[in-house]
Amino acid sequence: MAAIRTPKKNLSVNPVKSSAPMGAALAYLGIDGAVPLFHGSQGCTSFALTLAVRHFKEDMPLQTTAIDEVATVLGGADNLEEALINLTTRMKPQFVGIATTALVETRGEDFVGDLRNILARRDELAETKIVLASTPDFSGALEDGWAAAVTAIIEGLVIPGERRDVPLRQINVLPGVHLTSGDIEELRDLIAAFGFTAAVLPDVSGSLDGHVNEQYSGPTSGGTKVGDIAEMGRALHTIAIGHHMRPPAEALQGLTGVPTTLFASLTGLAPVDSLVTLLSHLSGQPVPASVKRRRSQLVDMMLDGHFHFGDRRIAIAADPDLLRSLSLFFGGLGAAVVVAVASTGNSPALGDIPADEVIIGDLGDFEAAAAARGAELLVTHAHGRQAAERLGVPLLRVGFPIFDRLGAQHRCRILYRGTRDLIADIANLFIAVRPEKGPADFADVLAPMPAPPLEDMRHAPIATC
């Protein structure tokens, strides 16, 4: 078990983590017809909006209650009410997800009570589904905000009670924040191969997949429909991905009685085999030939790629579940994780990381440790690019945000196909910085031997074959 270490310093230099409200906003953006609302100052929303737009290269309907100095002292309930009325009047969303920020959390307001009172007296809000998640910036990171928002959605929208007397051919999927649109699409296709329909919550593959609408839409276009969320209690089973999705999974199972299986990761041969076995058991069908073919391709790529992974020294900085998943992936192919930096220390995923220690720190700690331990590959988001340049080692971009490359939301790094492609991508990075040797590199070995003198040849024994 890795030792957890938190460096003692007065400030964070180039943080690894994004805030909990940012994670909540991403979850809300996975709902069809949604508008995330930050309960805080305009600056809090602007910072999150900038990161999201740069990562997805899309416009984002993030809104704010615009708390000012007076509201900070006297309370922000009036700002919240005004913002909700303006949003529903101008944008007409089907769903509004509220995320609190540090500014209002430090005052200790009763957000739940304020929202209840607003909904009770404002009839014009009756047609809009509204939920609130407590996500202060000073507590947790991206995973924590995402999980809090998904839990709030489940508790606010799912019809409670066991209704599985006539279950649908449906599998609920609760993806972690580290899964991309491409990951979710691949997972949906796998579930469909066994004859099931996937009800994904939140479904960023429908709303943040980079599509072009026929006409402008203020709220999100695509994602999980509000009506489908209400019917999640009729599913046959629930699959959750990542330790941070345990609270939402427990909330859904507690409300509906639908059994749940949590997968810590879906990258690598063994965890995907476990998922395929579960789906085969639930469906009563054998594994389709197409799925077996994907598995065979992954095994072949593991054989081809493991020569490039053996004893390589890897440095990873990410949110806990993504950090754990990638660490086990590299360890399974023979690489050594010499640096592991987590954005937050409040996750059980950190205990399973195959490293001597896990640093709860920032990219300053990450760069210093990578330099001291001779890392040959850096694995983190786009803010790690300067460290990679200074150390002269390649960078594999993962997580959020990735703003200096196109198509981050389409990359797939889970299941058989995603793991196969991830092995190829990393092996190619190693090949690029340490190219294979050509004939010129073996000039000394291949040089012809000088011929012996004639007099020596006359007395040499006759060679036999």
TrEMBL record:
Record family assignment: Belongs to the NifD/NifK/NifE/NifN family.
CDD domains linked to this entry: Nitrogenase_NifN_1
Alphabetized Pfam families for the sequence: Oxidored_nitro (PF00148)
Designated name of the protein: Nitrogenase iron-molybdenum cofactor biosynthesis protein NifN
Biological or metabolic pathway of the protein: Cofactor biosynthesis; Fe-Mo cofactor biosynthesis
Keyword GTP-binding annotated: no
Biological process, per Gene Ontology: protein-containing complex assembly
Domain Nitrogenase/oxidoreductase component: 19-430
